[in-house]
Design a protein that fits this description.
It comes from Anser cygnoides. The chain starts with 8 loop residues before the first helix and ends with a helix. It has 179 residues and is mainly α.
């Protein structure tokens, strides 16, 4: 199994997001590659060794370094403008420097937004029970779920400081994982 590890700050700021899809459209505004609102399977070419999209690992690594003890992580909304700016950079395939241009609340909001905008939720509607769900999930969904679970468990271990118990995390992430 693949779990997130502490990454030195230098590596977070030097990582560049690659383009992820090859959509063709006559409209030049739409003729750009995206990462938000794209099926997980389409982001496989940009996935890390864990099979998780690069932007997710970049955001999680940032939050592990700066957010584990941040009070209200995932409950306090980030700056709307900052989230919009970071999302646009990811969607345009630009280098995203979360250390210098992000903050814990905005990056946490961006991670939740990415999950909410998946066209097929991590837990799709057509699966009726957990055992069936886990065995039927596409590999890309299984990888993301496993990666996020390990990260959220780490967040919960700091609940005495950040007040994010497993129950609070379930309330915050449930709507994004089950559409």
């Amino acid at each position: 199994y693949c779990f997130s590890v502490f990454i030195p700050q230098k590596s977070l700021s030097s990582v560049q997001v690659r383009r992820t899809t090859n959509k063709v459209s006559p409209d030049p505004q739409i003729d750009r590659e995206r990462t938000f609102g794209v099926p997980l399977e389409a982001l496989v070419q940009d996935a890390t060794q864990c099979g998780v999209p690069f932007l997710v690992t970049q955001m999680v690594e940032y939050l592990e370094v700066f957010g584990l003890q941040h009070v209200g992580i995932f409950r306090i909304s980030g700056s709307v403008n900052k989230v919009k700016e970071l999302k646009q950079k990811y969607n345009q395939g630009e280098k995203v420097d979360l250390i210098n241009h992000g903050d814990v609340d905005s990056v946490a909001s961006l991670l939740k937004l990415f999950l909410k905008e998946l066209p097929v939720a991590v837990f799709p509607d057509n699966v009726c029970n957990l055992r069936q769900l886990l065995s039927c999930l596409p590999e890309a969904h299984q990888n993301l779920l496993q990666f996020l679970s390990a990260f959220l468990l780490k967040i919960a271990t700091y609940s005495a400081v950040n007040f994010m118990t497993l129950e609070n995390l379930a309330v915050v992430f449930g709507p994004a994982l089950f559409k």
